């Protein structure tokens, strides 16, 4: 349904193409299926290599050659995001099964991933603000790479602030409030009954 939702159901609305719930459901479903598969199945060494090569190639194709992908009609059919999700799931499978540890220089990217939900919830504040500045500056196309980097950096920073001062304190509060000492089944029963 993802490609159909991103094309037919959006009626040409670019915002809904990117942000509709049904339009992202194929990626969510593929991620869930990948998690289920990886919890039950171990790939051979050869299969892991194939997944690594094909998954990386799909990511590079969709992210690095978007103009070519557009010319092939993959974006018009809505399949570009599905291919991106499939490639991502393949790479996740490789990382999970090989227990790969990233080099230190990738720590900022890993930190961004750990704050991805907070970034997801708040990034549009940064996007709208910086895009407004971009428009006021006369939409200088030479500034687009800097705009993208600034959005990523500031959205990550805002995500970190939200996590540090809201999400994590709230998580800690909830865990302390509803945790139970071992063997305290009546407390658990009362929570279930509430």
Keywords, separated by commas or semicolons:
194 residues; mainly alpha; globular
Which secondary structure elements does this structure contain, and how are they paired or packed?
Elements: H1 2-7, H2 14-19, H3 25-40, H4 45-64, H5 66-71, H6 79-98, H7 107-114, H8 116-136, H9 144-178, H10 185-193
Helix pairs in contact: 3-6, 4-6, 8-9
Can you walk through the features of this model?
The chain has 194 residues and is an all-alpha fold. The chain contains 10 helices and no strands. The protein has helices at residues 2-7, 14-19, 25-40, 45-64, 66-71, 79-98, 107-114, 116-136, 144-178, 185-193. Helix 4 (45-64) runs antiparallel to helix 6 (79-98). The model has no long low-confidence stretch (mean pLDDT 88).
């Amino acid at each position: 349904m993802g490609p159909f939702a991103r094309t037919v159901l959006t009626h040409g609305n670019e915002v809904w193409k990117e942000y509709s719930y049904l339009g992202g459901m194929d990626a969510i479903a593929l991620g869930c299926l990948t998690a289920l598969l990886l919890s039950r199945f171990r790939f051979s060494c050869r299969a892991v290599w194939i997944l690594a090569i094909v998954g990386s190639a799909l990511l590079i194709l969709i992210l690095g050659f978007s103009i070519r992908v557009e010319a092939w009609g993959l974006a018009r059919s809505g399949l570009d995001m599905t291919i991106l999700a499939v490639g991502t799931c393949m790479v996740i499978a490789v990382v999970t099964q090989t227990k790969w540890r990233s080099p230190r220089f990738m720590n900022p990217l890993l930190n961004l991933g750990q704050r991805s939900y907070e970034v997801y919830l708040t990034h549009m504040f940064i996007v709208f603000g910086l895009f407004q500045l971009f428009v006021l500056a006369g939409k200088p196309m030479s500034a687009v790479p800097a705009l993208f980097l600034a959005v990523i950096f500031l959205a990550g920073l805002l995500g970190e602030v939200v996590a540090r001062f809201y999400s994590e304190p709230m998580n800690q509060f909830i865990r302390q409030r509803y945790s139970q000492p071992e063997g305290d089944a009546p407390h658990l029963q009362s929570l279930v009954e509430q």
